[in-house]
Design goal:
The complex is a heterodimer of chains A (289) and B (315). Chain A is of the alpha/beta class and 289 residues long. Chain A has six helices and 16 strands. In chain B, strand 9, helix 5 (172-181) and strand 10 (187-189) form a beta-alpha-beta unit.
Chain lengths: 289, 315
Amino acid sequence: MTGMAVNRIVPLVAREALGDPYALLTFRHRETAREGRAGQFVMIKAGLSAEPPLRRPFSILSTDPTAETFTLLVKAIGPGSGALCGLEPTALAQCLGPLGRPFTTPPAEEEALLVAGGYGIAPFRLFVEQLLREDRPPRVFYGGRTRADLPLLDRFPPVVAELFPATEDGSLGRRGRVTERVEEWLDSHRVPARLYACGPEAMLQAVARLAEERDLPAEVSLDPWMGCGVGTCLGCVVSIQGAEEERAHYRCACTEGPVFDAARVVWPGESASRAWRAAVSHRPAGAPA
Amino acid sequence: MSLAVEVAGIRFKNPLIAASGTFGYGVEYEGILDLSLLGGIVSKGLYMEPREGCPTPRIAETPSGLLNAIGLQGIGIRAFVRDVLPRLARHDTVLLVNICGDTVEEYAEVARVCEEATGIAGLEVNISCPNVEKGGLAFGGDPRMTYEVVAAVRRATRLPVIPKLSPNVADIAVFARAAEEAGADALSCINTLVGLAIDVETRRPRLAFGTGGLSGPAIRPIAVRMAWQAARAVRIPVMGIGGISSASDALEFLIAGCRAVQIGTANFVDVGVYERILADLGAYLERHRLSGINEVVGTLEYPGLPRLCDSEVYR
């Protein structure tokens, strides 16, 4: 974790509708603006009222340290996100951030391949900026079911070396799944690469599988329901198993994630992590775990 | 003007205590919140050994409430004493440990470990968790078992013993009296109410465990009623818990007869809750020309009933 999270009542500075149900919301919050890293999130709730009870986690889309503001990409899908999207400038929100572990910078010899599904694009805007500053232009693979699922597509081309959109219905970019485009790229570029993924769980699992097949490192940003954001409610735990751990343990996505090494995640329907399976297969028969 | 209260022989600088299961082990909030603002902290429930807890999903939001089935995931009492206690000692607040057990003997064993440690002011006995197979509600749902667990903990330690009672019973007064007779020094009322939320698309429970415990503002009137019933049934002090997120919420419990209150779900929603309630409690005392928060306790004017504050126990 980087800087310490700070709780504040913050004003909405700007709202930009991106077409239903997406909006870009900018809030003033000094610590998140200055310290927020790609992959980190804030716990935020519109207004000061009791309903709905819980704050919601949102990836930090971008920051402006000078103006001391940060921006979120919010998709209005329920009472919490809906209330946020309904805020007018100067209206207040309760915000705790920045929280969680960010994406790691890829080692110099590895290409960064960013894989986003739908509004899972949110943490990658900041990551792209960070990688460009380090002169490490990444490849961004951005997919969804249809054109409307790619809300920020037009914001990326000016800053990205290569953008590979894909939709399952072919309404924008190539028809097919985003992971197929990643596979094609890997087939034609036989170079060391690191995958970074954020999006629906099925996509993350597909990225993890692809990373395993190609023996590539991968980092995934998980998005379970969160209660507190600071590791006390234990509501957001995910099943994690390191190479040395005989069994998986529940770990908080809010404090040990939300970015995890994909190889340590025990995915739905699987009984052990890739890290553990790999360690076992390399262990001499009969050796202790 | 004093906000200090005393419960079970323990002095708290103010009546606001973080409820078990909603504040981790306290140290998670270091740096986010000044822990010395709190009257006290009740740790997450601890068994002898670490526990993995329930499968996921574990939480679901409901109207004004939170339904959870965490299942007492925890690091175990020894790791707590070794790794957490020294860090908590840096903060000027009272620590209560919430103790759990699969068996009566395990409760006593955890109590003995706490007895030997430094920095633990008292024990809250968890006989009311609805999300575990053994222990928990199995003990808190039967007055004879309540008596047996509390008596066993009482024998195991000189630390103040504070059973946390379940609302999932017909008459909480029966359980309050059973705990008092077994030697409890105070009571915590209440734990969560058993609830069920259903995903109508999949026709499955929204929580992997199935049912869960409901907390938050949704349960407050029930909690105030049950804490009030418990306070009327026993001579030992009661700590009120259930949906408190404002000074006025806390005052309801105090007026009903509770000596202190615990703040639970509101910790998840707003870490600024303590600062806000403390300021508002002070303003309330000023407005009502009271010199201390204790003057509020048990002052409920209930039709046809004498005020608790006029009974000799409260004097």
